[in-house]
Amino acid sequence: MTTASTHIGIQTRGLTKRYGALTALDNLTLEIGPGQVFGFIGPNGAGKTTSMKILSCLLKPDAGTASICGFNIQTHGDEVRRRIGYMPDFLGVYDDLTVDEYLQFFASIYSIPRKNRAGVVGQVLELTDLTAKRDSLVDGLSRGMQQRLGVARVLVHDPQVLFLDEPASGLDPRARIEMRSLLVELGRMGKTLMVSSHILSELAEMSTSIGIIERGKLLYAGSIEDAYAKTKAAANISERIAIKLEEGSIPASMLAAHLTSDARIASVQGDDTQRTLAVDIAQGDHGHHFLLEAIMQRGGRIAGFSPEPIRLEDAFLKLTTGALQ
Amino acid sequence: MTDADPVAGVMSPPSRLRRLLSPLRPRAWKGRVPGPVFQKEVWSINKRLSTSWIRLAYGLVLLTIVCFTFGILAFDTYSPSLSDAPNGTSGETSGRGAAATLQQYQTLAPAVTVTIAWTQFILLSLVACALGAPAIADERRAGTLGTLLSTPLTAWQIILGKLTSRMLELCILMFLSAPLLLAIRTFGGVPAWYIGAFFSLTFATSMVACQLAIYLSIKSKRSGAAFLSSATLLGTLLVGIPLMAFVASLMLTGAMRAPAPPSWMQWIFMPSSPGVMLFLSTELLAPDAPFSRWGSRTWIPSVFSLLAIWGMLFALSTIRLRSAMAAEAGGGPVLKAPKASKLAKQDGPTTLQDAAESGTTGKAKRRSSGVRAGVSRLVSDPAILWRERELRLFKGSTFIIRSLVLIVSVAMIAIYWLGQMHPMVCIVLSGLGILALLINAGGVNAASIAGEREGRTLDVLLATPILSSDVIRQKFWGGLWRLWPIGLVLLAHLIVFQFARPISYVLSSIDHLLPNKWQVEFDRTGLWKGATASLLAVPLFIAAVLPPVIMLCASGVFFSTITKRTTRASVFNVMFGLGLWVGLPMMLGMFVAVTANSRTLTAFVTWPNPFVLGLTTLVTTVKERPKTFDTFKDTFSLPNNSGLSFFEFCGLLIVVGGAYLGVAAIFLMLASHRLRRDSAGHGGS
What we know:
The structure holds 2 protein chains of 2 kinds. Chain A is α/β, with parallel strands linked by helices.
């Protein structure tokens, strides 16, 4: 009998994986609770897939421990495998099976009783909007459809924890939106999701927390809001202002060059073709008036002026360039 | 002169004739032959670790033969029993001087030459298939075929580049044995033209094998399937067809009853390089044997006929690749439109356009058009075993029915025409059947795990709670199950021969309906009575052949866990079987040729051989009007001149079968262990 707690989705302590001289994963420590959608961000080769493979019992770590739903991955692999769904970045499919057969095949592997299989398969097909393709050969599906089938497969046995490696790659814009809402819904259902993606704006919308990894090292793990705050602090920014200039105004690049010398401005970027300025105001109680005055004094005519949120891309860039290390 | 279309003002496409003749234009060769494909392939072949392993293994095989030969020489020189000293002084060379040793070399040289030539011939033919099989299939799998086909390179330039790069590798392997053969030629006195003939035949056969594999690779999804198909087709092309033509010509000309076949029959073997190699070997080892001069007469025409076959295959490959290019350009595989009558019976879309519009692509219709449209099967437990069983060796039951009809027809014709010769026909057909069964057993399971790896589905499977041992077990049984059509054909033909005499009786009663020149006269007295084989023939045959097949399936699963590609797993497994059942007896043959004192060794090596056991069973049990209980009194003659009683033979089958099953179990355990290690080795799976 196991004494595992089911309240902790994913927990790792000092996970390390080396391939010869290369350290693919260096001392990864994180904790992801149930219902959390954890966006795993990092450049190519950062260690995202290695982490997911270790947590899916496909790779053996060289050091450290990890547990899924309270079960240690090294000592209770069978229990872990029953509770996880792993979708690799490149989904290989059995080209000789139909969509229905493919899902039945995995339902059988997960020991779902035969009488329940048709119902389960029907549900996941409906959830992933694949009902119309039920009798199509898997090999004949488009890339996007295959991605959906991959998600359907990991849901067949109703796992507690999902590892999805680039689930949105190859999907058209509409399918991406659908995928995003599906993952958010799964999070609401109390499942723990670890999702890696290169499309950071999508992760920002669906994730409740993020982890940024580079060269095997976890640079940041926590909420998105916290990441933004850290980014602002690291870059000495209190807020970002987007300014739209009127036609016939002084060029944005010239204005930017003038504003750079102001100590209250952390950074400024001007785009002549769009006639826009992106101004990062330095930390401190400076207000907005000084900026409006400075622009108008230099002949700038303002058409629009609005605060702009820090994007996940900015946080990612700041965090992966060593700004916070 | 320009190709400009005066009406549309655009370049009109070149005519079909012009495209076909394009390889003959010197401009087409400039900078393209051997060309970038050749350079890239040579570079990547040489970069692969497996290439170094193949070269090393090949060199080691040749080295083993040489060491074995010198071992025999040493044994023969120092053995008191073989010493020609008058008093047999032990431990001395007994007056054997340099001249005697040289004489010994000369005795041994032909045997060594023949062994090396055959080793080289078999291994290089297989390696050629293995090198050619991934040529296009791997490009497709890696998604690089479209890129390659979108370059200015033409189909024939791509095919030629792929072929020449592989032939370069084969030449390197072939010339590894050159110093050895030249040394034998120098010290052993083997005429140089024999070595030249063996080299030429091996080169030409390898070229045909490689081209055949490339041809099959163009439309194969997996390189392993292309390898297996090319090896089987090569065997059929070089051995099966000439052999059948030979038998047919013997039957039709009545030469079967003549003391020796007429000399014109040697030309039937012209495209069969193994046949010509056999004649050359006979000529070298036993110059006075019948047909011994056929080899020296036919080897040059044989090489040219092989080159002609290669040319034909090259042209076919080019055409096939061109059609693949057209399909790629069209956005998908070229499909034949299903018959309207079939479509009318289906509930789905009625045209391909409809199918495309409704989201059912051509690929999706592929299996449906063969079996049932848009119907999913019910997956039974255990799922992996179910899927393996559904991956049929031969698609559709029509193939099995056709094969059965063909083999039964051949058997019946043979029974009728050959009269008293039918036991021999049964034995020859069974030998070919065993070969087909073993080759397929060698390849069928080699794709089990390596195929999952190639298809990138292994990770998904290993992330499930299924145990590694369950995966291995289900893959093994599924693969074994898939061999049933071959087993069925083999058994069906044995059963037909059981009733050869009554069939002959029935057929002879309608003999008068045929034209006079086709009628066969033979004694019908008592022909309807009795069987042609003992009733024990079938169970004994199964007991002799099934355990080795099981072992080969198990070793296939094991090899598929240690390799990344199905082709390599297939090659390793087929080589393993060949080494065990062909290589070892060949080495032994060489040993026996010198020592003539190795009854125990002969028994040890040849008795477990499925060919030996299966054919010994048939030689003893398939004969004229046997009485079932006579089999109990029969003597089963084995290669070392040992005669075993029925019960002793049954004991041998049990021991050998048990050993094979034990080895199979070990292979499966090793495979499970290996897969467990691959799946991180943690978590108790």
